[in-house]
Amino acid sequence: MALKIRLRQQGRKNNLVYRLVLTDSRSPRDGKYIENLGWYNPHEEESEKTLQVHGDRIAYWLGNGAELTEKAEKLVSRGAPDVYASYRQARQAAEAKARAKRQKRKKQGAVSAA
Hints:
alpha+beta; CATH 3.30.1320.10; 3 helices; 5 strands; 46% helix; elongated
């Protein structure tokens, strides 16, 4: 089961509010979700009423393999910058490890072909 942290629409037409939820990637956008991780109201003018993010729960789920969608990633970077920074570091470390592994395989393939 692939878990995603993404936005879920709430509210009425022309006055949408979004929830930041953890869901199975196969479920529909406004369908069933596992856990509510925050909310985003783009219509409020006060910054405190615009965004609320539960950073500790997001960090927990990211540690367990959940992935952020592009829009959710931007909201988490605004609402919980420390969680987002650790997520970016972990992702960059994984990419560097995969890159090193590819380079090692490429080098071994070139040596065995010669």
